[in-house]
Amino acid sequence: MDATAMLDPAELDEVADIAAVVNGPEDEPLDWDAIAWRPAEENVRRLRQRIFAASRAGDLKRVRNLQKLMLRSRGNALVAVRRVTELNAGRKTAGVDGTVAVSPGQKAELVDWLQHGTRSWSPRPVKRVYVPKSNGRRRPLGIPVIADRCLQALTVNALEPEWEARFEPKSYGFRPGRGCHDAIVAIHTTASRTDATRRWVLDADLAAAFDHLNHDHICTSLGTFPAAGLVRQWLEAGVIEDGGFLATEEGAPQGGVISPLLMNVALHGMEAAAGVRYHTTGTRAGKTIPGCPVVIRYADDLLAICHSREQAEQVKARLADWLAPRGLVFNETKTRITNFDAGVDFLGFTIRRFRNKLLTKPSNDALRRIRRRLSTEVRALRGANADMVIAKLNPIITGWAAYYRIGASKRAFGALDAHVWRLVYKWASFSHSNKSKRWIIARYFGKFNPARQDKWIFGSRDTGFYLRKFAWTPIVRHRMVAGTASPDDPCLSQYWAQRRRRSRPPGMSATTLRLLRVQRGRCPLCQGLLLHADREPQHPREWEQWLTATRKAIRHHAVTVWGAGTPDERVATRLIHTHCRRRATGSGGGTAPLHAAREPPGLA
Q1: Which site from 146, 194, 251, 591 is most exposed, i.e. has the minimal number of CB atoms within 10 Å?
Q2: Beta strand pairing call for 126-132 and 239-241
Q3: Does residue 46 contact residue 487 with C-beta atoms inside 8 Å?
Q4: Which helix or strand (DSSP H or E) is residue 457 part of?
Q5: Taking CA 163 as the corner, what is the angle to CA 170 and CA 533, rounded to the nearest 5 degrees?
Q6: What are the pLDDT digits (tens) for 397-443?
Q7: Using 50, 70 and 90 to split pLDDT, how confident is the model at 561?
Q8: How many angstroms separate the CA atoms of 42 and 73, rounded?
Q9: For residues 420 and 373, is the Cβ–Cβ distance under 8 A?
Q10: CA distances (Å), origin 98, targets 86, 95, 143, 144
């Protein structure tokens, strides 16, 4: 049946408008640099919201028809290719075919292939690579080819809104608008009261969850989703490791774009299986019924907060039976039952009750890891100049502080600043072994940051760049996402707009933050978003990568503003994309003139 057969006349008109704006004329070659991203993103967003609303209303036929529209949408193809080739951290990582899409022409070809060349496509095996874990072991990743990654991103936009309307309220991993900070605040909110009755914790970890997901259970859960057959082919595509092919009878590759969503689909229903119940009516609607446990899950890590040890043991037994059909079991070496008086580590934080007050701090393991990394980096920089030391350490410091700024981290920040000071002083002493202590201090330490009355800041006398301190990142109280709220819910547009306005990305100057507010977060040349993030970074290294990429992607420039009044008012500083500046200055006309503005010091 045609996907538009179940739509009413008003919706058919909207579909026609979407096709006219997003799909565009198919007989013309696509100019990647000339794409208007805002209309494409808006149309994909509206279609996601319609899928969400139909799923929430229980209208499965309409959900399937809208999903077919999404899978055929040119706008979705554009957004999917951009996500994989420009926004993802692994955009330059090739699969088994050794192919990446870097040039505008290659990206345009991928868009055309997504729309016209996928019927005969058979998913390729993933490339197995290993990344080190904090415990010394290695985590296996499966890297799909670039074509499969783009096709998965296209499929996610059709599948995710359907399940966003179903997912449980305290599931925070790999979901739009949610993250680690929401999970930590949810734990604190549940157990922070002095009269809190839930003081026992089942701290559970699933053993190699991605590697053991049951394929049949996932495909059964997807039901009649239009691309369910393609999802099964991805799951069974196999792995290439050390030149040999290995069949995959279970599991999903951790490097796949769609794999986190499939994990959430497989684990949907965990709260109900553990015995969690919510009020459905009245003023307490959405609150947990007294006597029930509270289960907070981030991907395959979960905490069940219980009233007693016996209840925690019952929850563990129930969940063990519930996980078995999904191919999953508890990792007994990491799963334990404890209480908040002894403390529990979750997502890099330690949540522990001190003198009847619950505090959330960076865990000791996290502190050991960052100290070890800083020491290793500085030792490797012996022989380099101060600018290289600053450029290497600043993203690490800013990223780590950005992740842990929501907890009681002030004392930890101060201790790490003292550790960094000792490291850079030893570096300077090694670099100038024949100089006195007074000479070294005068050369490398001073009031480099004019906004700080601190004479012990490490910096470069030649360029003025300086090393940031952990303590400069203010402690903020993160506001947890409400209940089952999702960015795909059309009724909550104002709620999510307000959350975005309140968020203040760390590590950015006051000038940059002011311009982001003035410009509503968009580039004045292409009208695209300046900061691309479906969700906040969920790890200190992700924050580090995000801040580095953001600094490279946007620049301060003086942009000519026409019709501003007097000639003196025609030039205003704006934030624009780096690629927009290259495109504008290389076009030779037709675009407003740009004049480079000096970057504020200290941001190397």
Answers
A1: 194
A2: parallel
A3: no
A4: strand 457-458
A5: 75
A6: 999 999 999 999 999 999 999 999 999 999 999 999 999 999 999 99
A7: very low
A8: 13
A9: no
A10: 17, 6, 11, 10
Element (H, E) at 306: strand 301-306
Question: Six-digit token pair at 193?
Answer: 């009261």
CA 599/CA 584 separation, integer angstroms:
19
Nearest alpha carbon to residue 390 among 461, 471, 441, 473:
461
- pLDDT-derived band of residue 579, with 50, 70 and 90 as boundaries? low
The DSSP bridge pattern shows strands 554-560 and 571-577 to be antiparallel
Is the separation of the CB atoms in 324 and 312 below 8 Å?
no
CB of 486 within 8 A of CB of 164? yes
The letter for the amino acid at 145 is V
- Residue 141: beta bridge partners? 129
Q: What are residue 561's phi and psi, to 5 degrees?
A: -110, 110
**Spatial CA neighbour of 534 closest among 488, 473, 482, 478:** 488
A 10 A CB-CB count for 280 gives 9
Rounded Cα–Cα distance for residues 306 and 308 (Å): 6
Q: Are 544 and 400 in contact (CB under 8 A)?
A: yes
**440, two tokens:** 């070294």
Give the mean pLDDT of 209-236: 94
Please give the helix or strand (H or E) that residue 66 lies within, else none.
helix 60-72
- Tell me the two tokens of residue 589: 């006309």
**Would you call 355 helix, strand, or coil by DSSP?**
coil
What pTM was estimated for this model as a whole? 0.86
Query: DSSP characters for 499-521?
Result: HHHH---TT--HHHHHHHHHTTT
Distance (Å, whole) CA 61 – CA 3: 9
> What single DSSP character describes residue 171?
B
Two structure tokens written together for 503: 């968020």
Query: Does residue 541 contact residue 398 with C-beta atoms inside 8 Å?
Result: no
DSSP state, residue 245: E
The conformation of residue 569, written as its DSSP 8-state character, comes to: G
Joined together, the tokens standing for residue 424 give 């850079």
Give the contacts of 517 (CB within 8 A, at least 6 positions apart): 501
DSSP structure class, residue 165: T
Q: Residue 161 class from Cβ within 10 Å (0-12 exposed, 13-18 middle, 19+ buried)?
A: buried
Q: What pLDDT, in 10s, does the model give residues 74-108?
A: 999 999 999 999 877 778 888 888 888 888 899 99
Round to whole Å and give the CA distance between 76 and 82.
10
Return d(Cα 192, Cα 4) in angstroms, integer: 51
H helical segments located in 268-363: 270-274, 309-323
Nearest to 80 by CA among 49, 48, 52, 54: 48
Q: Which residues on neighbouring strands pair with residue 303, listed in sequence order?
A: 203, 296
| Residue 127 DSSP symbol | E
| pLDDT, tens digit (0-9, with 9 covering 90-100), for 167-176 | 999 999 899 9
Q: Count of alpha carbons within 13 Å of 177, Cβ hemisphere only?
A: 23
Across 314-378, where does the E strand assignment appear? 336-339, 344-346, 349-354, 357-362
